[in-house]
Amino acid sequence: MRSSAREAKLQALLFDSSEVREGVDELIKTYQAFCAEDVRGTRLAHMVDMAQLTQQPDFVFDRTSLQDMSIPEAVLHPLAHFLNRKHTTIVYSSNGSSGISVSPTAKFLQKFSFRGVEYSTASCRMRNSHILFRPPEMDSPESLAKPEAGQITYAFLHHQIRVNLHCAQEDEGQARHPSVYLCIRPYLPAQPELKDIDESYQRFGFAGGFLSARKLAPPIIVDVSSIISHVAITPLEIRGCEALHILPMDRVSYLRLISREKRLMDGDRQSLAHADVDHRCGR
Q1: Can you give the residue ranges of every domain in the chain?
Q2: CA 142/CA 265 separation, integer angstroms
Q3: Which of 183-192, 204-213, 265-274 has the highest mean pLDDT?
C-alpha cells in the first residue's frame, strides 16, 4: 500500500512539474530500460513495439532499434564459412574471389528476446551477452552434453542468395524472411594446470559449472536457435592463473538428468531401508 501511494505521488509530481521531469529525464529512461528487460529468464519480455519479421516464432525484437550497417571484415569470413557448412556447399565467399559473394549488408540489433528471455550484445548489456550455446560443428544428439560458453558480439538479420534453385522455386509466392545470425566469441578452455579444479566443479554437473580462461577465441557464427541459456560469469584467480567460473542458468534442458539422479537416489534410500529391516529381523 505504501509503495503504491509513493508511486502515485511521484507520478502526480512528474505530471504537474515540467522542471522535475527535465531534472530526472535520464533517470526515468534508465529506469524504464531496466524494467523492460528480461533478467536471465526471471521476467517475461516487455520490450516495446515488438516485431516478428523472421522465421523463428519465438524470436522477437524492437523494430525501431534495427540499424543498417556493413558486416565487419572479421565477421564476413566466419559467416561465409558458416553458410557453406549449413548448406553443404563451398560456393560462398567473403572476398568475392570465387562463387557467391556474401552480402556485407545487414540489419544489426543490440538486443532481442528468444523464448521469452532477453539477450544482448556485449556493447549493449555485458551481463546479458554471456551465453551457453551449441557450437555449429555439433550435429548429433550426443553433442548436447558438451555445449560451450561464449559472448555475443553481434546480432544481425541477413538476406543471402539461395544456392539451391529448386528451393528458390518452392519459395516463390511466399514471404521471404531474413535469417538471424549471432557472432559469438567462445571462451577458451581453462589452463591445463587447473584441470583438477575444473573436474571438481564438473562432478556436480550443471549445478557446479566449469572453468574457462579469461580469453576469448576468434569469432564464429551460429543460428539464434543454438542458444541454450545465459551463464553467470565469476572472475577467479587460482594458483596464479586468471580464470572464469561459468555457471549455466539453464534448468529445463537438464530436467531429465535431474529426474534420473533423483530416481537413483530414491533407489539407494530404498535399498538402505530394506537392508536395515533385514538386519533387525536377523535375516
Answers
A1: 1-36, 43-263
A2: 24
A3: 183-192
Which of 27-36, 67-76, 99-108, 152-161 shows the lowest mean pLDDT across its residues?
27-36
Backbone angles phi, psi at 263, to 5 degrees: -65, -40
Query: How many percent of the chain have pLDDT more than 90?
Result: 33
Grid cell, residue 204, equals: 556436480
CB atoms within 10 A of CB 282: 5
CA 61 to chain centre: 14
Q: Which own/partner pairs from 120-123 qualify as long-range (CB within 8 Å, at least 24 positions apart)?
A: 120/152, 121/152, 121/153, 121/154, 121/155, 122/151, 122/152, 122/153, 123/153
* DSSP H or E run through 20: helix 18-23
- Average pLDDT on 67-91 reads 87
- Dig out the grid coordinates for 153 from the structure: 558480439
Cα 202-207-208 angle, rounded to 5 deg: 35
pLDDT in the model for residue 58? 75
How does 32-48 read in b/e, with b if 16+ C-beta sit within 10 Å?
eeeeebbebbeeebebe
Q: How far apart are CA 126 and CA 94, in angstroms?
A: 29
Burial class (CB in 10 A: 0-12, 13-18, 19+), 92: buried
Q: How far apart are alpha carbons 129 and 123 in whole angstroms?
A: 9
Cell numbers of 100, please? 557467391
Which CA distances in Å does 217 have to 46, 163, 188, 214?
A: 33, 30, 6, 10
pLDDT (tens digit, 9 = 90+) per residue, 167-194? Answer: 444 444 443 457 889 999 999 999 999 9
Helix, strand, coil: what percent of the chain each, to 5?
40, 30, 30
Model-level pTM? 0.66
H or E segment and range at residue 228:
strand 227-238
- Indicate the helix (H) or strand (E) that contains 257: helix 255-280
